[in-house]
Amino acid sequence: MSCSWHIGLPLAALLACLWLVPAPARAATTCTATAPGALAFGTITNGAAAPTNVMVSFKIQCSTVGLSLLADASVRVCVGIGTGSTGTTLSPFRGMTNTFGDTMSFQLYTNAARTIPWGLLPGGTPPAQVVDLKYPVPVLGGNGEVTLTLYGQIPANQALAFGSYTSSFSGSAVTLEYAYNEVLLGGSTTPATCTAGTTGHKTATDAFPFTVTANVLAQCSATVATDMDFGSRAGSIASAIDQTSTITTTCLKRTPFTVALDNGLYAGGTSVRRMRHVTNAAYTIPYELYRDSARTLRWGTTQNVDTLAQTGTGSAQPITVYGRAPATVGAVAEGSYNDRVQVTITF
Q1: This prediction's pTM
Q2: Closest Cα to residue 41, out of 56, 25, 57?
Q3: What pLDDT, in 10s, does the model give residues 157-166?
Q4: Contact of 147 with 71, CB cutoff 8 Å
Q5: pLDDT digits 0-9 by tens, 208-244
Q6: Distances (CA, A) of 202 to 20, 76, 132, 133, 176
Q7: How far is CA 108 from CA 25, 76, 92, 146, 315, in A?
Q8: Residues 145, 146, 147, 149, CA torsion sign
Q9: What distance in Å separates the CA atoms of residue 166 and residue 137, rounded to the nearest whole number?
């Protein structure tokens, strides 16, 4: 039997002819995703009382070619996100790390209320995001797309360390698993799952790579210092007097900081500290401050030269200042002597 085409051929006859044409091979449906890029949380404050929220959108696109006239395609897609490069768990939180391996908790969600974590596997705990697409497929093919939003949150009240935090999602951590039903004529039905369609099923890995980033800034606070008391001497300072004082500061864990001490109020030039008599400015006693117990490393204000470099621990850190009043020649005027030194913490 054969069919010939004529202008004015009734629709019923046309459809009958279509049914008599040998069915073409089933078309391949392919789904892809645009990469979200970076989910950047920006600057996070240590111990912040409120969570930090960000979001980023990306598209899922499905394309079908090779079907016949008056057809459509139905696709069920499971969009999976795993633990990322620095995480080991999906719930209750994922984790990203800085270069020292310190961890910051965060989570990725499928909803704006941030109550449904985004998982990797269909039906998993937590599950992958499921989306359905249905679109017409004329003779030359058709396609459909849907926009998804990835909702991120860093929970509050975390004890964090200084640094840049990141986690990368690529390879098997970002997957599209989809099943599809295609028909030659009429409407198709949506597959019941992402793993089994009447027409076909596919899994794509490294489907939409992205990174999650956050920064914790260096932070220091609550610096206090004790007085350095060289004691009392009668008439003269026959031998050097050594004493110490303590500077205590609290800096965020991993925070690099330096401690500088100026030359005081009554220095002679730029390198000799002096205590001055409280009632007679003509009388002074030299002294010096050092970074080491051997008292060989003078403590000053020039960064990377004579300041003290430290790293924060997250707790109060006592730092010892080593002082020396050298022996003097001749008598020293009776009375009280003092000086005031300014401490500068740079971070």
Answers
A1: 0.81
A2: 56
A3: 999 999 999 9
A4: no
A5: 999 999 999 999 988 999 999 999 988 889 999 999 9
A6: 31, 11, 15, 15, 8
A7: 41, 22, 10, 19, 31
A8: negative
A9: 42
